[in-house]
Amino acid sequence: MSVLQVIRADGILTVQDLGRPGHIGQGLSRGGAMDRLALIEAAALLGQSTVQAGIEMAGAGGVFTVDQPMRIALTGAPMTATLDGAPLGWQASHRIEPGQSLRISGAQSGAYSYLTPAGGLTTPDWLGSRAAHLSIGIGAVLKAGARLPVGTDPDPEAPSRTIAVANRFAGGTVRIIDGPQTAIFSDEVLAGFATTSFTRAAHGNRQGVRLDAEARFTAGQTGIASDMVQPGDLQMIGDGVPYVLLAECQTMGGYPRIGTVIPTDLPLIAQAPPGARIRFLRVGLDQADGLYRNEAQLLREAASRCRNLVRDPAQMADLLSYQLVGGVTRGDELEEMECRSI
Amino acid sequence: MEAEPHLTPEALPAGIDGVLVRFALTPEPRAMAAAQMLAAELDRQAPPGVTEIAPGLVSVLLRFDRGTVQRAALAQLVLTRARAIAADPPALPAPARRWTIPAGFGGEHGPQLAEVAAAIGASEAEAVEQVCAADLRVLTIGYAPGQPYLGLLPEPWNLPRMSALNPRVPAGAIVAAVRQVVMFTADSATGWRQIALTGFRAFDPARSEPMPLKPGDAVRYAPVAASELPALIASGDGLGGARLEVLA
């Protein structure tokens, strides 16, 4: 068994995977990574067929070492990473040797970053998941000195890879679908909501984030019975301030909900840093259904966006044909340049 | 008897892989019973592709596997069942399991029992008798893992929440409001009134069954003397001397 050791923890570091679905009826939300896509992208970079547990880093990283050679993936909100002082690309996988010091500093944009070892963290699980669920006392924030067991790397000699990712780290337009309570809001309120630009508030955590605007969005009806809520739901607190529920939300709520963020766009909300601008676009169920991808599909798509970081001649031929022969570029070469490993 | 409004169930989208069947927007007792009935029926015979069934107070949430079933087809199927239940004045379904949970009422374990008894026009002893005689069911579990909302108490118990919060009630506290009882899983602030205390912990992550209660379970409280409670609370399994009978 290999070990990934936390030498210094600067941000809020927790073990996260895709959470524990299936317990809503018992009052337990799924939890898991705030940016699920980032963990899927880590699995793609490491060539893994299932999504593994990694360290979620909120705001800042820390210093890490390994006791055996280990591949790791760095995904999610871009942070500055160095290995014994030499810069490492983000959205990429790298090999780390014992004795080397992996130093990860603050996020350049976004909110949640992921350090995932090949083979995944194999910390003890609870109800089929290793994810910390801080609001109910499952798992804990990682401290300096934490020694995290790591599973077997299926392909230790695999080259370093990089993945092209859409910029979901600075706010933007988020698509929502109607939920069970959308109809209790008036057409005027719904129209106003659609034309308002919100600011991601400083107030937020793994349960949800508040969005600020001058306008208020209140439901027409009071005294409604509490019912089931889930990540992505947009609930109106107090006199109509939206709060987007995220991974560790409660399972039941009494505040009126105007709609639900579609899963494709939920990482954008989770990653919006305080101050980022957010707008909402109400789309039909058919359109949302068309955009939906399950985890296996997302992993396949992420794998197709990966390529080798070290460009050996065989890979070079492929890259050249990909970029030049067709006369078009993919538009993400710059990101790849920034991601280049040393 | 006053005519009650007809229940008109709706099937509504609840996220990309969910359907919520709702019997009413407000917490009407008939809608609560109908939701219980539908959840129990779906539990016995889950439609194809349904991965999760979670009863709320007046609604049932179904999550489905999008590869197996389409939202519209599932919504139609469940709505048909919901309408059949709504057409007959629904009664609570027969419970599959019953918990008997020892509880210490009044005094330091139920500091607001006297206040509640006065509000429902009963003596403290009569109020305890009414709670212990009530055919309580786990209507829904939520707010915190494992934490049950139990109901319904007799109509006089339709007491509003307090305007000020109880700053702290302990884990295991039985609190009452709006004809329901909540048994807290952890120390909490609440606008509901504490009438009793149990040694029952409805959530303990270290236990093999962290969340032992299921929606639809029957719950009966058995009064015990204040002096007996500490031993029940200290009992090893964290269930405070509760007994579970499987009825069906």
UniProtKB/TrEMBL annotation, chain A:
All copies of domain Carboxyltransferase, residue ranges: 25-297
Q: Which spans are transmembrane here?
A: none
Molecular function GO labels? ATP binding; hydrolase activity; lyase activity
Keywords from the UniProt entry = ATP-binding, Hydrolase, Lyase, Nucleotide-binding
Family annotation (Pfam families): CT_A_B
- Quote the InterPro entries the UniProt record gives: CT_A_B (IPR003778), Cyclophilin-like_dom_sf (IPR029000), PxpC (IPR052708)
- What's the protein here called? Urea amidolyase
Q: Give the species this sequence originates from.
A: Paracoccus zhejiangensis
From TrEMBL, chain B:
Q: Name one GO molecular function term.
A: ATP binding
Q: Name the UniProt key words of this record, in alphabetical order.
A: ATP-binding, Hydrolase, Nucleotide-binding
Q: Which InterPro entries match?
A: CT_C_D, Cyclophilin-like_dom_sf, PxpB
Q: Which Pfam families match?
A: CT_C_D (PF02682)
- Please report the stretch or stretches of sequence annotated as the Carboxyltransferase domain: 9-213
Keyword Hydrolase annotated: yes
Q: Under what name is this protein listed?
A: Allophanate hydrolase
Q: Which organism is it from?
A: Paracoccus zhejiangensis
